[in-house]
Design brief:
The protein is an all-alpha fold. It has 35 helices and 2 strands.
């Protein structure tokens, strides 16, 4: 309740002016002057003196002055008398005096009377008096009317909330900003083209400038999303200093991202101590990174106690990292039952690892239906493992639609298998663009199959222009894809770039590619380095490459090491393929005859 009531009316007397720098002697002199005038029967002086004493808390001294001034027809005194009686607990008598003042034109009294009726559930009467106050330009009346109308779902609420905000009511400015914020930044306000989001920011800024801590928090969040981190930090700091735990938590994340972990921890601690679960989780993660698992667990529990389900999930992760599987399952279950989708997915994985496929499936389903992309992908793997490819594909497609790279790869592979090359290409592009080396390689093979013959000059010299498929092969090769590395090496060899070809073959071979080792051997042999070539062919043959075994058989045969040549020929016959096996068999038989001769 506004203690001063009709403050504007009192100020109009010119005799009751607040001043922060008046000394006590001046105040005493003013009060003495008012008392003398009041004793002489000056109703205005009685009213001002009563208001002064009411402000001071001297209800016994104020009441007779206000009653005398009210009897003389002073509406400000009637309003303040209502305030005094309300403070004494005489609400109905206070309402009577407010009615007198309101009828006489006091906007403050109309506001007080409206609130009185609303507290008693008489909304029609409350609306009538609050509207009287609002229409006279009373900010508190406009705000109270807006609050009443908003409670009913009346669209006119925004009009009065705006009126209160424009008159300096900070809570009205904040609530108007929240309404505009929820409406979304894409909506325009009238014909001026200002987005609702931009207008919301303006009102947040006004409320924050008047000391509204939640407005400062939201303003900081808007600025942070826009990348204006320095100003965002200033508003978070303002809000946090005023006791807003969420702002302290957000400030901590800003500081952490800036590399100041120690300062971040200070603000997270402050927020966590005020009950912010997100800050408690952040502290837990910080201590977990430092290896301080007991402290981390304590903060995760604090987050959970604060109602943040992430605390239970993080406890599950912590226990899983420590191989405390039973405890991890317990915490995952707690979080999953509370609706944490990633906990449901983690629980399903844990059950699957323990061989409980039947128990895992419903948790994967629950997480996927709640929006977990990883769970949708995992369901695809689960059904594919059972041979239910159609069901698996539906889950892969769902995960791929949400941007899951490996799911897009699986859909692309399925489309290729079904002969849908255009559909496969679309999904493979998505997966390759998301960083999948396998997808980049498969996309390159699709494009390679379509590639027309290379153009030539008039004199017959081939012209090499790097095609899109080569670019994808190179991207996959650069990510360590062995078959792509071999293919890039082959393309380099085809255009005569022996050094580049050798580099890619060697990378593939050293990563375990038998084709890379075989091709590197061929390249080295052509360059006259047959001993080194034999080393790589040996590596390829040991990995099961039949042609490499045949090459080794020929090398040893030429050297006259017939027994070793026969051994590799036997190996080539066993490895194949058919053409290689036939040639190796003939060589083996010839070597056998030579040895027995």
């Amino acid at each position: 309740m506004d203690v001063m009531g009709d403050k504007a009316t009192l100020l109009e007397t010119g005799r009751f002016v607040q001043s922060s720098d008046r000394d006590e002697a001046g105040e005493a002199a003013e009060e003495l002057s008012l008392r003398l005038a009041a004793e002489a029967g000056d109703a205005e002086a009685m009213s001002v003196l009563g208001a002064l004493l009411l402000r001071r808390g001297d209800l016994d001294g104020a009441e007779p002055q206000l009653r005398a001034a009210t009897a003389a027809g002073d509406r400000a005194a009637a309003n303040n008398l209502g305030v005094l009686l309300h403070q004494r607990g005489y609400a109905d008598e206070a309402a009577g005096w407010w009615r007198v003042a309101a009828v006489a034109g006091s906007a403050a009294a109309a506001h007080a009377l409206g609130r009185h009726h609303r507290e008693r559930g008489d909304e029609p009467a409350a609306e009538y008096w609050l509207r009287q106050a609002a229409e006279q330009g009373h900010a508190l009346g406009a705000y109270a009317l807006a609050d009443l109308l908003e409670h009913r779902g009346d669209a006119a609420a925004e009009q009065w909330m705006r009126a209160a905000a424009e008159r300096g009511h900070r809570e009205a400015a904040y609530r108007l900003a929240r309404a505009l914020d929820r409406r979304g930044t894409g909506e325009t306000d009238g014909d001026n083209g200002v987005g609702a989001g931009a207008e919301a920011e303006q009102w947040y800024r006004q409320a924050a400038a008047r000391g509204h801590r939640r407005a400062a928090l939201h303003l900081g969040a808007i600025l942070e999303r826009r990348g204006e981190l320095r100003e965002a930090g200033r508003w978070y700091l303002t809000s946090a200093k005023d006791g807003e735990a969420r702002a302290a938590c957000a400030l901590g994340f800003l500081l952490r991202d800036a590399g100041d972990t120690e300062s971040a921890a200070v603000w997270w601690l402050r927020a966590a101590q005020e009950g912010d679960g997100n800050a408690a989780n952040a502290l837990g993660a910080l201590h977990a990174e430092r290896g301080e698992t007991q402290t981390a667990e304590r903060w995760y529990r604090a987050a959970m106690d604060a109602g943040d389900v992430n605390g239970a999930y993080n406890l599950g992760l912590l226990c899983a990292e420590q191989a405390r599987t039973a405890q991890a399952e317990q915490w995952y279950r707690r979080a999953a039952y509370a609706g944490h989708r990633e906990a449901a997915n983690a629980l399903a994985i844990l059950l699957l690892q323990g061989g409980d496929t039947a128990g895992a499936e419903p948790w994967f389903s629950k997480a996927a239906e709640a929006g977990s992309v990883d769970a949708a992908f995992n369901l695809g793997i689960l059904f594919a493992g059972r041979g239910e490819d159609a069901v698996a594909l539906r889950w892969y497609e769902r995960a791929a639609a949400a941007g899951h790279t490996e799911a897009a790869l699986q859909v692309g592979i399925a489309r290729l298998r079904d002969g849908d090359e255009s559909g496969a290409e679309r999904y493979l592009r998505c997966a390759a663009g998301g960083g999948s080396a396998e997808a980049a390689y498969r996309l390159a093979t699709v494009l390679d199959a379509r590639r027309p013959p290379a153009p030539t000059h008039e004199l017959g010299e081939a012209v090499h222009e790097k095609s899109e498929c080569e670019e994808w092969y190179e991207r996959a090769a650069g990510q360590g894809h062995r078959r792509a590395q071999v293919r890039v090496g082959m393309l380099a060899a085809a255009r005569g770039d022996v050094v580049e070809a050798a580099r890619w073959y060697r990378e593939a071979a050293e990563a375990g590619s038998r084709n890379g080792a075989f091709n590197l051997g061929l390249l080295l042999a052509r360059e006259g380095s047959e001993p080194e070539a034999a080393v790589w062919w040996t590596r390829a043959a040991d990995a099961g490459h039949g042609r490499a075994a045949l090459r080794l058989a020929l090398v040893y045969a030429r050297r006259g090491e017939l027994a070793e040549g026969q051994r590799w020929a036997d190996r080539a016959v066993a490895l194949g393929p058919g053409e290689v096996a036939q040639r190796a068999a003939r060589l083996r038989d010839a070597l056998r005859e030579e040895l027995s001769a």
